[in-house]
Design a protein that fits this description.
This protein is mainly alpha-helical. The protein is 46% helix and 4% strand. It has a domain of 143 residues. It has 7 helices and 3 strands. It has a 3-stranded antiparallel beta sheet with strand order 1-2-3, with no helix packed on it. The longest helix is centred in the middle third of the chain and has 19 residues. It is globular, with a radius of gyration of 19 Å.
């Protein structure tokens, strides 16, 4: 992952990122989401950063460095009490202009909220798995998301890999857990060696028991 980190690149919507397969759920009409049609302006300081129109009520005419996706008012995850509400809020935010890092953290917030809802709605676990894989797809398409800010800094930690690993271990899918650990080490260069050794050991024990 040698790509230089770039938080100034932006896309009209998450689904416009090449290499990402995303279709918003039925009932989400992008044209009705405030901020879907705004575009940034270059600042006058001579840098590469941009300014976006503020979408905050009462701040019309103002500007901010936050993209519309970041500004989306539905991202107070504590207010989303159901799986459907979390997924709708996330989908609407993903339909707004933003940069790849925005979408990465939006999905992370949704995934974290869904995990907290799993005891009241078992469907939340399935959605957590789906969102984690969608985030992996995003990072593969835009590796600068986990590139370091400076050459002497480590890569950003991919929490979704840890979530997937724990989920598969918890459900007894040891081969899948080992796959995740190997992918974390070999593809994304994460510090996942301990988990990889653990997954291989647990699988070896299980295979030995089956052969006995």
């Amino acid at each position: 992952m040698a790509s230089k980190r770039d938080d100034t690149s932006w896309f009209p919507r998450f689904g416009d990122i090449p290499g990402v397969a995303w279709t918003p759920p039925a009932g989400v009409d992008r044209r009705k989401i405030r901020g879907h049609d705004v575009r940034p302006e270059k600042n006058d300081w001579g840098s590469d950063s941009v300014w976006w129109p503020s979408l905050e009520p009462g701040e019309e005419g103002g500007s901010t460095s936050a993209t519309p996706a970041q500004q989306y008012v539905g991202l107070d995850w504590s207010e989303a009490k159901t799986v459907a509400a979390v997924l709708r809020n996330m989908a609407e935010a993903l339909e707004l202009p933003g940069n790849p890092s925005d979408y990465h953290f939006i999905m992370a917030g949704a995934q974290e909220r869904l995990w907290k809802l799993r005891q009241t709605d078992p469907a939340a676990v399935r959605e957590v798995e789906r969102l984690c894989w969608l985030d992996v797809e995003l990072v593969r398409a835009r590796p600068e998301i986990i590139a370091p800010y400076h050459e002497d800094e480590p890569h950003l930690y991919m929490e979704v890999l840890n979530v997937l690993y724990r989920l598969y271990q918890r459900e007894g899918y040891l081969a899948e857990a080992e796959q995740i650990a190997a992918m974390a080490v070999n593809e994304f260069h994460q510090r996942f060696e301990r988990q990889l050794d653990e997954a291989r050991e647990r699988r070896a024990v299980l295979e030995a028991e089956d052969a006995a």
